[in-house]
Amino acid sequence: MYFLKPISDEVRLAQLTFKKNNKTMKLILCSIFACIAAILQSAGGFFPGIGYFISPLATGPILLFSLLSLPYGVMSYFLTFILLFILQHTELFIFPFTTGLLGIGIGASFSFFRKRISMIASGTILLLIGLTGLLFIFHFPILGPAVSDSISVLTTVSIFLFSFLYSWLWVEMALVIFKRVKMIFIK
Fold first, then answer.
1. What single string gives the DSSP state of each residue in 50-81?
2. CB under 8 Å, gap of 24 or more: what pairs does 142-148 form?
3. What is the pLDDT of residues 6-22, one digit of tens each?
4. What pLDDT is attached to residue 11?
5. Could you give the C-alpha distances from 171 to 108, 161, 184, 187, in angstroms and in order?
């Protein structure tokens, strides 16, 4: 079955090759990925309308860098959060609980798991926790005014289905992007 097929070992090879880089290069790449993620995440505030379609792409840089190195991926996540504090205050609740958390979760799952379904499940669980936490605990209208912030089974199931499909999309996108840029990291 498609979901039970293991992911190739190219990711592990890239992680080992990335570890061979010196610390300065790792920190430079970490800051570049954090800047890209902060710019993409803040697009919703700078360009209302079209920017809301660009801001979910902030998952990509965090995911790809977490895929290469989890500690530096977490560092990139926090740097992005600090940059968002400077650039766009409105995104401070959204990034750490949604796009950033999804990027860290899926990127880390490439280090811990080998099967596609495990990677999708880890992203699904973290995104579900982030979205329901924002909606039901902090009462932040992440899904707009049409969705009530009171706990309901329909809303939770809808968020779960969205989280699963979105995580699946990002796992597949990460594999495609990784295959295209692996020559940068594997020499």
1. THHHHGGGGHHHHHHHHHH-HHHHHHHHHHHH
2. 142/93, 142/94, 142/97, 142/98
3. 776 778 888 888 889 89
4. 81
5. 12, 15, 20, 24
Residues 85-124 have pLDDT tens digits of 998 888 888 899 999 999 999 999 988 888 899 999 999 9
In whole angstroms, how far apart are CA 168 and each of 45, 146, 148, 161, 165?
27, 26, 26, 11, 5
The whole-angstrom distance between residue 72's C-alpha and the CA centroid of its chain comes to: 14
Structure tokens at 17: 């090759």
**Predicted TM-score (pTM) of this structure:** 0.89
Please give the structure tokens belonging to residue 148: 């009530």
Predicted local confidence at residue 147, as pLDDT: 76
Q: Encode pLDDT of 45-98 as tens digits.
A: 888 889 889 999 999 999 999 998 999 999 999 999 999 999 888 888 889 999
**Coil, helix or strand for 162?**
helix
How far apart, in whole angstroms, are the C-alpha atoms of residue 175 and residue 7? 9
